[in-house]
Amino acid sequence: MTSLLEQAERTLEKAQSDINPRWYPRYHLAARAGWMNDPNGLVWFDGWYHVFYQHHPYSSEWGPMHWGHARSKDLVHWEHLTVALAPEGPADADGCFSGSAVVDGDMLALIYTGHKFHGSPDTDANLYQVQCLATSRDGIHFERHGMVIDTPPGLHHFRDPKVWQEGESWYMVVGSRVEDTGQVRLYSSSDLYKWQDEGIFAEADEGMGYMWECPDFFTLGEKRVLMFSPQGIAAEGYLHRNLFQSGYLLGEWQPGQQFTHDGHFIELDHGHDFYAPQSFLTPDNRRIVIGWLDMWESPMPEKQDGWAGMLSLPRELSLGDDHRVKMKPVDEVTALRGSYFPTPVRCLKNQKVFVASNAEAVEVQLVWDLNTSTAEEFGMALGDGLRIYIDNQTQRLVVERRYPEYLLEGTRSIPLPAGEVLSLRIFIDRSSVEVFVNDGDACLSTRIYPQLGQRDISFFANHGAALFKDAGYWSLNK
Ligand code: FRU
Questions:
Q1: Which of 115, 335, 395, 473 has the fewest CB atoms within 10 Å, i.e. is most exposed?
Q2: DSSP label of 309
Q3: Separation CA 312–CA 294 (nearest Å)
């Protein structure tokens, strides 16, 4: 191990024991201590799922980026491994930024952005971002090969390579900014070392963002999906409410051709906190996505506890008949379930019923009969801070959080899906909630910060009656 990696390990070993666990996830992946952002290098290699992530081991604030590392046999039980990359070369002197992983024969290759300033870091004019390669045979220790793609002339923001193989070639999409236009650029290679510039792959139309981060490109059903995280899209009504978004464009592509798409950017998740998702394929060919369950410039109160940032549950994607991307938790998460506690009540009339106390790690199931539910608002609450409910007047499904002590208040919502039944799977962890709607129709992910005694679950109906076909919860255990 290099001295920077050893130093990171020593720091983390000590910092880990100082963490305040009150909001530290019970079944989601977070760094042992310190800061985490984007998931990186998601890959199945040598019998393990590997997750790397943007990591600052030395504090719970963003800083010179390292690549943290964990692995799992089943996507739900994670084992932390030693930090994989530290910013120590001339190409990545100021940070090992986001990137991806591919398996080339018996070798695991990480392709990531080397972030560096030539001169003072106070101006973008001095910023250079280049694409770098590191390889490993054991999946744990990496040999660094330095830069494989230099910054194109005139660019400064040029980052987050996602590599895939198609036919005989490797392809890479990279996010970039040209003046105030977000772009994705395409490269190709036969060996991962020498890359050929294939030009602009996709570009923002008016209002679609000044920078496109973390592009990913894959096939889903009969479509091609360009997933990315644009910066600079203005909020419009209920849409694009977060500081930055993540979503996708659907289209067609073949090697050597232009990517054609319908120009319709659709957000992938509708909660307060979901960014920089990355996808990978399982050995049985499922397309899985994991995102960062946070948002830039959010207060992230867990910083005071010695850590910051966590990842979403792994989610399986599919293409709906309506040509929208559907997203549901991977089947493996059911392995976390303990016993099921059904709710004895079937109908709520202007009432709130207590369901569970001190719910730290639970999956709540709620199957509402929309036809016969007349209440103005009905849903579930966690303490006084979180409500997930149907607003019958606006016909929307709402996630509302109220943690004014941390300046975290407000709602996110989606139109109520058509149909007589609304089925919700709600995953609660110590500081997160993920609401999956109708087996993949939509998802809302939000960080929550309940105080002691604020974790009781109740179901409620205000001004009228609400009926469920099924309701209850599983406690989740690792
Ligand atoms: C996205 C991002 C990436 C970058 C990384 C830096 O959240 O800004 O574009 O590589 O985070 O940590």
A1: 395
A2: -
A3: 9
Is the distance from CB of 447 to CB of 347 less than 8 angstroms?
Answer: no
Q: Is the pTM of this model over 0.85?
A: yes
* Tens digit of each residue's pLDDT (9 = 90 or more) over 235-251: 999 999 999 999 999 99
* CA angle at 9 for the pair 7 and 14, rounded to the nearest 5°: 100
Q: What is the pLDDT of residues 273-328, one digit of tens each?
A: 999 999 999 999 999 999 999 999 999 999 999 999 999 999 999 999 999 999 99
| Alpha-carbon span 212 to 184, nearest angstrom | 7
Point out the ligand 1 atom lying closest to the alpha carbon of residue 229. 1
Q: How far is the CA of 359 from the centre of ligand 1 (A)?
A: 33
Q: What is the DSSP letter of 314?
A: P
Q: Is the pLDDT of residue 161 over 90?
A: yes
d(CA 424, CA 367): 6
Does 245 contact ligand 1 (Cβ within 6 A)? no
The DSSP annotation for 219-231 comes to: EETTEEEEEEEEE
Q: What CA dihedral angle connects 342, 347, 349 and 351, to 10 degrees?
A: 0
